[in-house]
């Protein structure tokens, strides 16, 4: 087993996408392979895979770099069914905490994950509650935001009931109040992300999210347990 980065033009990229990513995430949560290739070519994405001796990818992590906000998003982390809970996810998180930090020098490293109260466990897509426990073991905390994943492209839907986790932050990334994150980078990241939906008039969910971002003292960091205490976005923003 070895871990390596996957570049644009590498034949392994299509195998990672088709064999690992597509079966592991609902369609509305998935970017296209063409989008990923473009971002890799631009240097604003990173793909790291765990590969068996015969070249078969068995786990992968995909990151998106937003240079304007200096936020790095762990978009996808997946392990082939049957090999989960065997340390491969932790192995890839070591890359996120190490090589990815050296490469991008982000102010914040975030991850978007499904809220266990909004998404059920699924054989293909995994168990949101178990996923949250995994990130908790690695020290992640949730931002106190009613977060949703914006629609990624025309025809795709928003994904409500998501959490935005903080995996790492650079020195000085805290807010003015203890136990918070400075709102500026998060707000810039979210606003860039919302551009994928075009110039539509903000609805209740967007307004509620922006209210959460407009906290001058900082955005609170919350423990991941219990999930019932974590913020939950809804389509109507209530």
UniProtKB/TrEMBL annotation:
Originating organism: Streptomyces glaucosporus
Protein name stated in the entry: N-acetyltransferase domain-containing protein
Positions of transmembrane segments: none
Domain N-acetyltransferase, chain residue ranges per copy: 1-150
SUPFAM superfamilies with a match to the protein in the record: Acyl-CoA N-acyltransferases (Nat)
Pfam families in the cross-refs: Acetyltransf_1 (PF00583)
